[in-house]
Amino acid sequence: MSKLNEIKKRINSIKFENMLFVEDLKSAIALWIDDNGLVSFAHRSLQEYFAALFVSNLNVLEKERVYTKVIQKFSVPKSVNETENFISLCEEIDTLNYNKYYKLPLFKELRGLLNTNSDYELVKSFLMFFVCEINLPNLVEGDNEVTYATILNLNATLVYRSIYFHIDYTQKIHSLLTRKVYSGYFNKCSSKSKLNSFTSKNKRGKSVVKYIDINGEVPRDFMDEIMQCQEIIEAIRELSDYIDNSIKSCVSYIDETQDLDKGLVDLI
């Protein structure tokens, strides 16, 4: 009820009784449901649709603020599934501003993170964007050898901001990198790199898991191993090409739409 009171304070022209308004939404049009005093939309998709419709009716400055907030919300991994359908609806209902204030800024951010001067720099910059740590299976100390399940610890804040767009490409690269690490090639090269470790507990006791820290710099011997895998290089190239093409497509759509709007207004 406090939210309704706040809305009425901000929009003086709107006047209603809170309880009657809620009852209408529950009974007359069945948009809301009451679960032991907790009132919510009857289905999440209804809430997402009305939220997207609200965004589409905002002025340009407030639209930019909303999309900036959505980008920030995506930076928290658990929020991705909560926001995905809302973003899809914004793309459909508010296409121009979705491209201008959401899609294009994120692709430009990705472009800035990946260095295209050479394949070596491209792969290196991708690793620094995508991964913060790589755990090495079979490199353990203790009585029992274990394989640590989480091989790649993602640089979550950066990765999830734009995951809605790059997931098809980064899932493939993630799989290839994991396969490369599991293959055991890094057992021979890791002794040359500066390794860190942490203690992992399991049913058989404690084991020390070795890992490569990617933050700030990618170890040279690690890069040498990765650069021997053409499939990984090709997959990262595909991601880079996709980013370039998406930026071109966004800019083209924005320019054409704005030119069309201007041309129609000129006809008045």
How would you sum up this structure, described in words?
The radius of gyration is 25 Å and the shape is globular. Among the domains are: 42 residues, no CATH class; 131 residues, no CATH class. It is α+β, with helices and mostly antiparallel strands and 268 residues long. 22% of the residues are buried. Strands 4-3-6-5 form a four-stranded antiparallel sheet. A two-stranded antiparallel sheet has the order 1-2.
The pLDDT mean sits at 82
* Number of extended strands: 6
How helix-rich are the residues, as a percent range? 55-70%
Number of helices: 12
Radius of gyration: 25 Å
The termini sit apart by: 46 Å
Largest sheet: 4 strands, antiparallel
Residue runs with pLDDT of under 50 for 5 or more positions: 139-148
Strand content: 5-15%
**SS-based structural class?**
alpha+beta
Order of strands across the biggest sheet? 4-3-6-5
Overall geometry comes to globular
Order of helices and strands: HHEEHHHHHEEHHHEEHH
Could you give a short description of this structure?
The chain contains 12 helices and 6 strands. It is of the alpha+beta class and 268 residues long.
Keywords, separated by commas or semicolons:
4-stranded antiparallel sheet, 268 residues, single chain
Topology:
Elements: H1 2-10, H2 18-28, E1 32-35, E2 38-41, H3 44-56, H4 60-74, H5 80-93, H6 95-113, H7 119-130, E3 131-141, E4 152-154, H8 156-161, H9 163-182, H10 185-189, E5 195-202, E6 205-213, H11 220-226, H12 230-266
Antiparallel strand pairs: 1-2, 3-4, 3-6, 5-6
Helix pairs in contact: 3-5, 4-6, 5-6, 6-12, 7-12, 9-12
